[in-house]
Amino acid sequence: MYYEVHGEGGTPLVLLHGGLFNIDLQFGELLEGLSAGRKVIAADFQGHGYTNDIDRPLGTAELASDVVALLARLDVPKADLFGFSVGGAVALYLAIEYPELVRKAVISSVSFNPSGDRDENAAAVGDMKVEMIAGTPMEADYLAKSPHPDHEHLQTLLDKLGGYDRGTSGWSDDDIRGIEAPTLLTFGDADAVKLEHVVRFHQLRGGDVNGDFVGVPASQLAIFPGTTHFTGLARTPLVLDTVTTFLDA
């Protein structure tokens, strides 16, 4: 499992990218700002970036186990998490199943159960072919970094992403309410997650209150304007301010 360490100080922040992305594609523009005054650990997931694929399904539980092993290897007893899409699903899993490892979690552009996904998502991801991403940064980075830089292995990755967590029921309302770590939820206003689901997610985390009367909840919500799923972290200054303010509070 390929990883990088940037900066030093404070609680380590672990960066968890989305499907078809990698450290550079997802967080490259954010790394300098995020690592100013804190240690940042960034990892390439199974089959992504410089990390080889292995003979197992691609799913949240499997990727989360890799992160747990990485933290143990680096002797990190507690960390902050910043996960986007697939990485957001992994961050959510860790916050629920490994609460002792998580101080704060930034969970971006992912639903907590399939009811929050837009109807077109499954078909679009399930039918992905190499030809559909030809000429994109995702294809170029795969061919530049993968230990097996060919289209056959890239198609295998696309097939695994097409079956990602298929058949799982997601998390219950009680699971989300029970998360111990403060969470920052971030989404684009034109994201792959339904906005009514985003609001429900925020409410289950103690949000949607009049903070002037009852106090501002420890868990927060940010909606980035003019932002889709694939451009979810593209507004670098806005994302940096939102995330670092939450982590430093």
From TrEMBL:
Which Pfam families has this protein been placed in? Abhydrolase_1
User: GO molecular function: any one?
Assistant: hydrolase activity
What lineage, starting at the top, does this entry show?
Bacteria, Bacillati, Actinomycetota, Actinomycetes, Propionibacteriales
Q: Which InterPro entries match?
A: AB_hydrolase, AB_hydrolase_1, AB_hydrolase_fold
Q: What is this protein called?
A: Alpha/beta hydrolase
User: Which part of the chain is the AB hydrolase-1 domain?
Assistant: 12-119
SUPFAM superfamilies, per the entry: alpha/beta-Hydrolases
Q: Which UniProt keywords are listed?
A: Hydrolase
